[in-house]
Write a structure and sequence with these properties.
This protein has about 400 residues and is α/β, with parallel strands linked by helices. The protein has 16 helices and 10 strands.
Length: about 400
């Protein structure tokens, strides 16, 4: 998930930038004041407690605030993260927010500070007051609001000072210029998240092409079990004689052999990438469990599964066309072998697809069209999956 806090003095443009960020990244806006007003309007138990405090002239305490913010977060199920305004305001509330994120199994992504001088803030607020006829924005009130920001809000940033989450952004310029500066930091944050992807689909669906594109664009190590097996036979290793008969017939190579090759590839690439993209593995439900175990040993997991959808007749056409190229596979020789291969895949397909669908990490992607069109669809899904990583 992408979780942001946007700080800045009055007049810095937080409202405008918040709107752009919410629309661009599908974020839910969480404002202490707005959340409190909803509770008051709905006459909830918390709302009634807060109302009693407010009417007596007191300030709503953190015990109530944390529950109100928690309710606002829990109520939102469809967004890809949260954008906080007016919370946290104190050290205590900063710890509270950490606790709320822990409960959601996520964390704060970035604290963005819009930097702008008091002189420029005053100029903007006075101009806004003139244009909108707002008598509450006069110089005396503006000075007081700026003083409160410097004395009460900015000291809170010390809480985050020793983390890599705090970024300062020049708030001067056009709306688009400021947004682009903010967005550079967010893109950097998104691109730093490790991810492991599996590209799945019937033979001929385009898995190899699309998996290699993902590896290139997202700094992932491409792992194809068929290519690992071919490499063993090319090098005439001790395993080659065991592997060749299976490859020639298009049959599954025993898991004991494949596991060792995958683990070897993982060791060779360890620390040199952002994650992995698997193509052609798993091909059975047993192998899906095996892959989970292999990844667990590396303290990670498969985060996202792309299931390429291509009609059966189109698959036959593609595989027949491939049989006439240097990329042909042993089982592309004739129509009978092609159909048999597709039928074999179909027998195992539902159990694997349902396994990843039940884990809520599978996305169906239309595999028809040009390579570029298909990749564009996949890439959009992957970008969103990365933002949603907890």
């Amino acid at each position: 998930m992408l979780n942001l806090i946007l700080f800045g003095p009055p007049g810095a443009g937080k409202g405008t930038q918040s709107e752009l960020l919410m629309n661009h990244y599908n974020l839910t806006y969480i404002s202490t004041g707005e959340a409190l007003r909803k509770e008051l309007k709905a006459d909830t138990k918390l709302g009634l407690q807060a109302k009693k405090i407010i009417e007596s002239g007191g300030l709503v305490d953190d015990e109530i605030i944390v529950q109100i913010i928690g309710n606002a977060i829990q109520a939102e199920k469809s967004s890809d993260g949260f954008l906080f305004d007016g919370f946290p305001r104190t050290y205590v509330q900063a710890y509270i927010l950490d606790g709320l994120f822990t409960g959601l199994q996520t964390s704060l992504s970035k604290i963005i500070i819009l930097e702008i001088s008091d002189k420029e803030c005053t100029k903007r607020l006075l101009q806004r007051a003139s244009e909108q006829g707002r008598s509450d924005d006069n110089e005396a009130i503006i000075r007081k609001r700026l003083q409160e920001y410097h004395e009460k809000t900015l000291p809170l940033l010390e809480f985050y000072q020793d983390t890599d989450k705090l970024v300062k952004v020049n708030g001067l310029g056009t709306t688009e210029e400021v947004f682009n500066r903010i967005n550079e930091h967010i893109i950097e944050e998104i691109n730093s998240k490790p991810i492991n992807i599996m590209v799945y689909g019937f033979p001929g669906s385009g898995k190899t092409t699309q998996a290699k594109k993902l590896a290139r664009d997202f700094n992932l190590t491409y792992i194809s079990t068929s290519e690992l097996l071919k490499e063993e036979t090319r090098k005439k290793t001790s395993l080659a004689e065991q592997i060749s008969p299976y490859l020639e017939k298009g049959l599954l190579v025993p898991d004991e052999i494949v596991i060792r090759l995958i683990e070897k590839k993982l060791r060779e690439s360890d620390g040199n990438n952002r994650g992995y993209v698997f193509k052609g593995y798993p091909r059975t439900l047993v192998q899906a469990y095996i892959l989970d175990g292999i990844m667990k040993k590396k303290n990670c997991a498969i985060n996202f599964v792309v299931n390429l959808q291509v009609p059966q007749l189109e698959l036959v056409k593609r595989l027949d066309a491939r049989s006439k190229t240097p990329d042909r596979m042993p089982y592309d020789d004739n129509a009978a072998k092609i159909v048999a291969r597709l039928e074999e895949h179909a027998q195992r397909n539902d159990s694997i697809v349902n396994y990843y669908r039940n884990n809520k990490i599978l996305v169906e992607v239309d595999g028809q069209g040009s390579e570029t069109e298909v990749y564009g669809r996949i890439k959009d899904h992957v970008k969103r999956a990365i933002r949603n990583l907890r």
